[in-house]
Write a structure and sequence with these properties.
The chain has 420 residues and is an alpha+beta fold. The chain has two domains: 3-195, no CATH class; 286-420, Histidine kinase-like ATPase, C-terminal domain (Heat Shock Protein 90). It has 13 helices and seven strands. The protein has helices at residues 3-33, 37-52, 54-57, 68-78, 88-105, 114-126, 129-149, 155-236, 241-270, 289-300, 317-338, 378-388, 412-419, and strands spanning 273-274, 277-278, 303-309, 342-349, 353-360, 392-397, 403-410. The protein has a five-stranded mixed beta sheet. The chain has a two-stranded antiparallel ribbon with strand order 1-2. β6 and β7 (403-410) form a beta hairpin. The radius of gyration is 43 Å and the shape is rod-shaped. InterPro entries: DUF7134, HATPase_C_sf, HATPase_dom, Sensor_HK_TwoCompSys, Sig_transdc_His_kin_sub3_dim/P. One of its GO terms (cellular component) is membrane. It is an enzyme of class 2 (transferase). Residues 320-412 form the Histidine kinase/HSP90-like ATPase domain.
C-alpha cells in the first residue's frame, strides 16, 4: 500500500471524528461570549475556590495544618473575582492582600495562587498602564519575599510561581491587543460603511440633479418651440395655409423629439434592457449642435449662426452632453425671453478647454423684461452643468447689447485638475 493511499483515508477519518467536535466547541464558546459577565465571573470564582479547596478535600496529600481561618482566606482569594470586570483594580488589591496573608498564616499555604493568576490577567487586560505595572511588580516581589520566608522553598518553586505570573500577565496583554485590534477593525468597517452610504447618497443626489436638468432642458426647449409655432399658426392659417401647416408640422416634430428624449431619460430611471443591451439611445453631443441650431432656426424663424475656431477633438461623454445642453438652454432662453432676431453660437477650441458662447441681439438685462422668468432654473442649470464637468459659466449683457452666455468646459487633464 502506498503512503498516499494510506494517508488520504486516515485524514478523512480524522475529519469525520474531530470536525463535529470542533463545531460543538465553537458553539460552546460562542454561547459563552454572549453570556452575562456576572454569570461567567461567578462561575470562575467558584472554580478558583474549588481549586483552592483541594487541600481540604484531600488533607492527606500534605502535612500543612488545615483551619477554618485558612479556608476563609482562600475564600478571600476567590470571591473578589466576581467583580473583576466592574472594578478590576480593587478586586486585584483584595486578592493581593488575601493571598500573602494565607501564605503567612500557613494553615495551609496556597500551593498555587489561582486567584493571583486571574487578577493579573484581568488587570493586564482592563487596567491603565500604571495600574498594570504596579500590580505585576507587587505580585513578583510579593511572591519572591513569601518564598524567601518559607523554610524549605526550592529553586523550582521560584521559577514556577514567577513564570506563572508572567505568563498570566502576558496573556492578558495579548488579549488587550487583540481586542483593540478587533475594535479598530470594527470601527474602520463602520466608517467605511458610513462613507459608502454617504457616497451613495451623494451619487444619487447628483444623478437626480442631472436628470432634473435634462428634463428641464428637453421640456423647456420643446415647449418653447411649440409655443412659438402655436402662436404663429392661427395668424397665418387663413392668409398662408402652407405656412400654417409647416408651423403645425414643427409643433409635431418638436413634440416627437421631446418624447423621444424623455423616453431616453425614463429608460435611465427604469433601467430597461432589451436582449441584454440598453434600449436607450446615446445622449446628444457636440456633433448634434448643427442639427439643434437648424431645428431652432427652422421652427422659430430665428436666424442662428454656428461657428467653430480651433481644432475640435473628442471630449468625455458627460462634457459632450453638457455642451449640447448648455447651447440648447441658451437658445431656449433666447426664444422665450429675448425677443431676438438673430443669435450666434461660437465654439472656441484651445489646448486645454472648449469655450461655448451664445449671444443674441434681443433684450438684455435692464432693457426690457427679465432674461429668465422669476424662479427659472435655466441659468442655474447651465452653471451646475459646467461645475459638474470642472468648468465655469458666465452670463449677462452682451458686448453689443442683447444677452450672452459663456461656458468654459475643460478637456480631460484640465478637468481632473479642476475637480481634484
Amino acid at each position: 500500500m502506498s503512503a498516499q493511499s494510506w494517508f488520504t483515508p486516515a485524514v478523512s477519518r480524522w475529519r469525520a471524528v474531530f470536525s463535529p467536535t470542533a463545531v460543538r466547541w465553537r458553539s460552546v464558546f460562542s454561547r459563552l461570549r454572549t453570556t452575562h459577565p456576572y454569570v461567567l465571573d461567578t462561575a470562575l470564582a467558584a472554580l478558583v475556590l474549588f481549586a483552592a479547596s483541594l487541600q481540604w478535600i484531600f488533607p492527606d496529600e500534605g502535612d500543612d495544618r488545615l483551619t477554618w481561618q485558612g479556608f476563609l482566606l482562600a475564600v478571600g482569594t476567590a470571591v473578589p473575582l466576581v467583580w473583576r470586570r466592574r472594578a478590576p483594580f480593587l478586586s486585584a488589591c483584595a486578592v493581593s492582600i488575601c493571598t500573602p496573608a494565607m501564605a503567612v498564616y500557613h494553615a495551609p499555604p496556597p500551593n498555587v495562587a489561582y486567584g493571583g493568576l486571574v487578577v493579573l490577567y484581568t488587570v493586564a487586560t482592563l487596567c491603565p498602564p500604571a495600574q498594570r505595572r504596579f500590580m505585576l511588580v507587587t505580585w513578583l516581589v510579593g511572591a519572591s519575599l513569601t518564598m524567601m520566608a518559607k523554610a524549605h522553598a526550592q529553586p523550582f518553586e521560584y521559577a514556577f510561581h514567577l513564570t506563572s505570573f508572567l505568563s498570566a500577565y502576558a496573556l492578558g496583554i495579548l488579549t488587550r491587543v487583540q481586542r483593540a485590534y478587533t475594535a479598530e477593525l470594527e470601527d474602520r468597517a463602520r466608517r467605511l460603511e458610513r462613507e459608502r452610504a454617504a457616497d451613495t447618497a451623494r451619487a444619487t443626489a447628483q444623478e437626480r440633479a442631472r436628470i432634473a436638468r435634462d428634463m428641464h432642458d428637453i421640456l423647456a426647449h420643446a415647449v418653447s418651440l411649440m409655443v412659438v409655432q402655436a402662436e404663429a399658426g392661427p395668424v397665418v392659417v387663413r392668409s398662408d395655409p402652407e405656412r400654417a401647416e409647416a408651423a403645425f408640422d414643427a409643433i409635431a416634430t418638436s413634440g416627437r423629439d421631446a418624447m423621444r428624449q424623455l423616453r431616453r431619460i425614463l429608460g435611465v430611471l427604469k433601467e430597461e434592457q432589451v436582449n441584454g443591451t440598453s434600449a436607450r439611445l446615446p445622449q446628444p453631443g457636440i456633433a448634434a449642435l448643427a442639427a439643434l441650431v437648424g431645428q431652432v432656426a427652422e421652427s422659430t424663424g430665428l436666424r442662428v449662426d454656428l461657428s467653430t475656431t480651433g481644432v475640435p477633438r473628442p471630449l468625455p461623454a458627460d462634457t459632450e452632453v453638457a455642451a449640447y445642453r448648455v447651447v440648447q438652454e441658451a437658445l431656449t432662453n433666447t426664444v422665450k425671453h429675448a425677443y431676438a432676431s438673430t443669435a450666434r453660437v461660437e465654439l472656441d477650441w484651445t489646448e486645454d478647454a472648449l469655450t461655448l458662447t451664445v449671444t443674441d441681439d434681443g433684450r438684455g438685462p435692464g432693457t426690457g423684461g427679465p432674461t429668465t422668468p422669476p424662479g427659472g432654473h435655466g441659468l442655474i442649470g447651465i452653471r451646475e452643468r459646467a461645475a459638474a464637468c470642472g468648468g465655469s459659466a458666465d452670463s449677462g449683457r452682451g458686448p453689443d447689447g442683447g444677452f450672452r452666455v459663456a461656458v468654459r468646459l475643460p478637456a480631460t487633464g484640465d478637468r481632473q485638475a479642476a475637480l481634484g
